[in-house]
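Sequence of Pimeloyl-ACP methyl ester carboxylesterase (Cellvibrio fibrivorans).
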Amino acid sequence: MRFLIGLGIAIVLALSVTVVGYFYPSSETAEKPLPNSDYRFIKTACWFDADWTATITCGELQTPEQFRLAIVILHNDAEQRRADPIVYLQGGPGASARLHTDGIKSWLNWMRYSNTKRDLILIDTRGTGRSKPALVCSEYNQFNQQLLRQNIALGDELAQGYDVAAQCFASSAQANPQLDYRNFSTQKSARDVRALMAQLDYQQWNILGVSYGTRLALEIALQEQQTPQTVKLKSMVLDSVYPAGFGGVQTWPQVLDEGMQQFFKGCSAQHECIKKLNESSIGDVVSLEQHFMQALRNLQRNPISITIKRWDGEAPVNFVVNDHRFLSATFAAVYNPSDWPTIIDAINAVEEGRSDLLKPLMEPFINNSMTSDFNSLTFTAVDCADNPVLSETDYTAALVKYPLLQEYTRDQWRYQLCHSLPSDSPLEKVAPQLPTLILAGALDPITPVSWAQSVNQQWPYSQLRVREKIAHSVLGSDVCLLEHLDEFFNQPEMKFTACAKEIEN
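Predicted 3D structure, token representation.
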């Protein structure tokens, strides 16, 4: 999922249409389109450097709509190798599988560390990573670059971003009908994944989905139930579950409010955070919440200009930190409790007018928003396809119920691009009819543990494990669970008891 107030945040759920990431035009020459046909998987030479001892298959899945989706299969060389692979479904929507040299090295380390004894299958879904054609827009990229250096009120930024992005979708579809927004949806990606597995040499397979990847997994499970195929989906692990009926603009007031409240409460109980609080000017007289809200007011009156180093070696970025951009960066850091002390430092930096002390919070925020591993237009197209626009009356009621930051969520309904990209067939809620392990972090601000608890009660084939001191993406932090994933995949019908002392339901 991707979350945004004004400027973009990587690895989170968008609150606006503006600057959720940069678009990188393809440098490859245009290729002749394939004739309209069924799905085909074609093996290719690998395009990255990797460990020469690893056994890797690379290829592309060609879809009936003439998309070409990059596929990488990391083969497990364990002596007791299992025959049923794991298909990893990443977050987003719009996030790539990182099928480049650095990404593949990380995946090989992940596979060896998790020791599942299974092949790992990775896919760049439509509009992500190396998939072709690419959903790109130079005008939107230029708008983003200009915006960085300007102090613009949130409402104006939303309005301008809406107009630019809407025009991008229109011009992209006009130039290439394949890039019509209706070709990007969770339903279509689910069909793509199922078609891939039907093309490969496996009899059974498993899914490991994280964040948005859990939503894609659930749609795959629904399609499997409606139209079973020879290759059987055996089991699923859903980490930080984001099912149909949750998310979308209608939940943003609640998610932002509750996520920040969780930070205010949790930071006051975390050792490293307490140490920072004691070293700062935040005391018992002024609560952390009040101190944070004061920082927003200060930045609204007096924004701070900073220069941010680019991680990709490009020229440094001149960036204006105002209130809503500071809120966006803070919410990105709320995902990981280990980053909470950095937020305290940044609050004090605003109070002291110290631009240098803002950089530890803002540098990862800016760099993650510029990564080529995320495509913002794809995010928007898929999110709108999955979540129909609800009434403004319902949204207003949510603002009243969650008032803490309504100044920053008030205009989100009006400027959501889904008004211009109406959904033809929103996702259905589904209770998967196969063994499913749900993992949730009690501190997760973006896919709250209440979502996981709610769906677990409705799914007779599911088990729920809640990690008390973890936020988003449990397997990214929980070493014990990662090491014992094979126990679930080996016997998914059995009660999963690994790491019971470290996890509480």
